[in-house]
Amino acid sequence: MTLVSPAKAGTETATAPPGRRTARRAAGLVASVAVLLVVLAASVAIGAKPIPLDDVWHGLFHYSGQNSDVVIRDVRVPRTVLGLLVGIGLGLSGAVIQALTRNPLADPGLLGLSTGAAAAVVSAISFLGITSLTGYVWFAFFGTAVASVLVYALGGSRGATPVRLALAGTAVYAALYGYVNAVQLLDGVALDKMRFWMVGSLASANMTIVQQVAPFLLVGSVLALALARPLNAVALGDDTARALGTHLGRTRALSMLAVTLLCGAATAACGPIAFVGLMVPHLVRALTGPDLRWILPYAAVLSPVLVLGADVIGRVAARPAELQVGVVTTFIGGPVFIYLVRRRRMAQL
Amino acid sequence: MNASKRMTPRTRGVTLRTRGFSMRLDLRGAIVGLLLVVLSLVMAVVLIGTGDFPIAPADVLNTLAGNGNPAQDFIINELRMPRVLVGLLVGAALGLSGALFQSISRNPLGSPDVVGFGQGSAAGALAVIVLFQGGPGAVAAGAVVGGLVTGAGVYGLAWRKGVHGYRLVLVGIGASSMLSAVNGYLLTKADLQDATRAVVWLTGSLNGRDWSQVWPLATVCAVLLPVVLAYARDLRMLEMGDDSAYALGVRVERTRLVLMLAAVVLTASATAAAGPVAFVALTAPQLARRLTRSSGPNLLPSAWMGAGLLITADWSAQRLFGADQLPVGVLTGMLGGGYLLWLLVTERKAGRI
Fold it and tell me: Residue A174: which of B185, B333, B348 has the nearest Cβ?
């Protein structure tokens, strides 16, 4: 396993007096929220039928049933809300996994969670004949949970180390991927449905899905934010963390639970979206330094910016067709990732 | 590896010397290599005899010697022999390139699967299948071009005053996830028939291979194997780190470039012939290393191990699921997962991770 040495906080941030540092981080967070609001507005306004902002306002707050109002209420708003939720889930789960495995290049895919969801969905399609997106949700969620328990058990629930978790994740990924492939090849219908599910898309978002996944994302987010302090201690190494009074086993179990809730709900809602969970916390760390109490809120605000931004680009880039959001995030994420890898110094685990 | 055991001054090789030529032969390595060759050939004969029309091993050998009846002769020489040969060659090429990659990147997980060359060839082949509806030949060509372009791109991007092993792996991960997004997108654009064909190809299959796939692959292996073996000593030095290798007189960048190129071409031609068969490149070198118990790249044992693994997996796939139901890649994928799990459990028991 390899990793990049933890991003150093900018030297000026490190040398600034604590009060000013906090002020600067808070200001940055406020600016990020502002960016998020702009992207939210763009996501409602831009699409196959561009809608002027005053009509957007009209549709949101003075619904009168005119054409653009219907588009906004039934299509754009659910899609935007779902993108927001999914972004928060992916960003937070990525940040928690990177802290938990002490690997700044870890993401939910590394732990085999998305593949767990895929395995459950492909089974639901092939063996139970379920073919609607709302039907997949629970299966995807269940699959993520099973994969997560499996990885945790294999990784050694008591003495789980970062390497062991990553190796267990890779093993689970490999075994489940083989299973998904086998089912797809034996069943044409499953293949036909899965190829659209696998790329990750917000196109068929509706309020039912939002209501199904929102509670899990909420609980997961609260749990993740509450874990910031113990995970900060975990970053210092197991021995130091224990010396600081952290209950390592409990922290790991709760972190896995938070990741399962967040990543499971996000994947259930729109399929696996790659790179958001990897990239956003990674970039945020360069802004805030290694303190998770800042990384987590920043990631929760900036990940939806990436998801919704990618979704808007996908709607515009290939008109009249759409590029799926998963494709666009990878295409933004890949080059940024390679740039980061080229820039930073490498270290061996 | 147990360091203290490895350090014991035990003669584990014999030295062959004549005037002007001397060479050290690792006995255990040689014996393991020989056993693996025998095993691959036995499995090959068994595999030739397996199918809707079973043929006893003795008859297979008889027919191969030219004494079979016409029916058996047709089935063996025209239908099954090419498939088995493609399997052996693909396995050997993947095993060898896996050993090269793991040694160059100094990372036991550094196989072409992980580094993104597989996804590159997959993207090339998928583009041909989905965008141009090309035949098998065009798909193979697309795979080779895709693999080579990706290889060159990853190497170029990882280059900063030389290629650092870890940077190469990481750039490979980035490139491969981008390519897998491309692949996913292309799959959604295809009609269902093309998509099925693409997924079979992506899984890696030996079904319906004929002599036209054997010859290019055999040529590539015949040309590259001597080149790789010629650089094997330098590679061994390279494993001690760039600086030590420099000090010992190895041209580090040239060795790395030549071997990397060889590994990429091997992977690309194997992929062209059978699709990106998962995990052979990852597991074959590691299993070979466990058997030979020697440090160093273990190039030849890895190649034989790859050949044996792939042939055995193909035979098991046919026995378990029925002839030509599931491509061999499904089985190697599951075996790979199982191997990683086993690794996890044993390493944990030994207290190493």
Answer: B333
Q: What is the ipTM of this complex?
A: 0.76
- Report whether the peptide linkage leading into residue A320 is cis, meaning its omega lies within 30 degrees of zero: yes
Cβ contact A191:B196 at 8 Å? yes
Contacts (Cβ under 8 Å, ≥6 apart) of B145:
B124
Give yes or no for a contact between B123 and B147, defined as CB atoms under 8 angstroms apart.
no
CA distance B61 to chain A (A): 34
Q: B175 vs A173: CB contact, 8 Å cut-off?
A: no
Minimal CA separation from A187 to chain B, in Å: 10
The answer to whether A75 contacts chain B (CB < 8 Å) is: no
What tens digit of pLDDT does each residue of A231-290 get? 888 888 888 888 888 888 888 889 989 998 998 889 888 888 878 888 888 888 878 888
Confidence at residue A346, expressed as pLDDT on a 0 to 100 scale = 42
Instruction: Taking residues A70-89, report their average pLDDT.
Output: 88
What are the distances in angstroms from CA B114 to CA B110, B258, B281? Answer: 6, 20, 10
Answer yes or no: do A174 and B279 touch at CB < 8 A: yes
- Rounded Cα distance between A87 and A305, Å, is 8
Q: Which residue has the tokens 């940077």?
A: B167
Contact list, A158 vs chain B (CB under 8 Å):
none
Three-class DSSP category at B250: coil
Q: Which among B170, B199, B340 has CB closest to A2? A: B170
pLDDT tens per residue, range B164-178: 666 777 788 788 888
Do B107 and B289 contact (CB within 8 A), yes or no? no
Residues with Cβ < 8 Å from B292, sequence gap 6 or more?
B26, B28, B29, B32, B33, B298, B301
Yes or no, beta carbons of B330 and A326 under 8 Å apart: no
Instruction: State the pTM of this model.
Output: 0.77
pLDDT at A156: 63
| Contact residues, chain B, for A327 at CB < 8 Å | 181-182, 184-185
* Cα–Cα distance measured from residue A152 to residue A253, given in angstroms and rounded to the nearest whole number: 8
Residue of B nearest to A274 (CA): B177
- Alpha helix positions (H), A6-132: 11-15, 18-45, 53-61, 67-71, 77-100, 113-128
**Each residue of A170-212: pLDDT tens digit?**
788 878 888 888 888 888 888 888 888 888 888 878 888 888 8
